[in-house]
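Hi! If you just cloned this repository, the fastest way to understand the data is to look at a raw example. We've pasted two of them here, unedited. The first protein comes first, obviously.
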Amino acid sequence: MESIKKYIAECIGTCVLVTFGCGTAVAVGCASDTGSGYLLTALAFGLVIVAMAYSIGNISGCHINPAVSIAMLIRKQLSIKDFIGYVIAQCIGAAVGCVILGIVFGLDCSFGANRIQAVWESGSVGGAFLVEVVLTFVFVLAIIGVTSKTENGAVSGVVIGLTLTLVHILGIHLTGTSVNPARSLMPAVFAGGDALSQLWIFILAPLIGGALAAVVYSYLEKE
C-alpha cells in the first residue's frame, strides 16, 4: 500500500509538471527572441518543482523524472521494483497532463514537445545530446547534493526548483530543455512528427546525465 501511494504521488506530480510547464510553453511561446515567454516557461517548470517538492516530497521524494529515479537507484536509495513503479507512474502522469493540454489547447498544439531548436544555427544531434546530458547532470547533481543532508530539508525544494529554472534558461534555446524522459515522451507521442524522430535524444541523454551525476557525487562524498 505504501508503494502504491508513492506511485500515485509520482503520477500526480508529473501530471502537474507537464500541465503547467509544457502548458505554459504552449500558452506563451518559449522562443528566445520573445523575451517574457522564454522566462515564463523556465519559471513555470521551476515553480512546479517547488510546489510539488513541498506537497508530495514527503510521500515519494518528488522525483517526477526517470533521470532522478535512475540516480537514486544507482545510489541504492530506490529499489528496482520501486524504480520501475516510479517510471511507469511518471509516464502515466505525463500522459494525463497531455490529455489536459489537448482539451485546453486543442489536439493540434505542440504539447511543449522537445525538439532541436531551429534558431540554434549550429545545432546538431550530437550537440543536442551533449546539451541534455550536461543540463541533466547539473540538475540531478544539485538534487543529490541538497537532499543528502537532512538539515537542508527546509530549503531543498527551492534549490531544486531554481536549478531547474536555471537549466531551462540555457536549454530552451537549444533543445527546449528536457532533462526528463517522461516529460519528453508523452508530449512527443501526442505531438507526433519530428518530435518523435528526435525523441530518443530526450530519453537517453537525460538518463545518462542522471546516472553520471549519481556516480560522480558518490565518488566525491567518499572520505
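Ok, and the second one:
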Amino acid sequence: MRHNKKFNHLSRTSEHRAAMLSNMACSLIMHKRISTTTAKAKALRVYVEPLLTKAKEDTTANRRLVFAKLKQKAVVTELFQNVSEKIANRPGGYTRILRTGHRLGDAAEMCIIELVDYNENMLKDAKKAAKKTTRRAGKKAAQKAEAAPAAEKEAE
C-alpha cells in the first residue's frame, strides 16, 4: 500500500533530492526566477514556501531553521532582509509557475518558477485591472448635475 507517499521522488536518492532542492531554492531566492522542469518546480514550491513563511518573522530560531535547509549564508541574509519585506503582507502563495512548453532534447515540460512579488510586469497589470472600474451611473449623475446649473443659468 502507498500510504503517506505523496511527494515526487524525482528519480533521485533522498540525499541527492535534498541537495538539488536546496540549490534550486537558493537560486530562486537570489535570482527571483529560474527555469526548470514542471515536476521539479512543483517539488520546489512545496520545499521553498514554508521557508518563505518562516522568513516573515526574523528570529534566531527561524534563521537557524532556514539555514539548516539552504546552507548558504548569503542566501539566508537576502531572504530575511529583502524578500521578507516584499512578502510581509501576503498570506501565502509566494511562488508562481508559468509553463513555457517542451524541451527539445527529451520533450520534458518546462516552466519558469518565480517569486510573485518580484514580477513587475504582472504587478503593473494587476494595478491596471484594479483601477479599471467602470462607474457609468456616477458619470451620468455628474453630467446631470452639470447640466442642471447650466439650464438654470439659461432660464435666468
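That's it. A detail worth noticing about the second one: Residues 136 and 142 are 10 Å apart (CA to CA).
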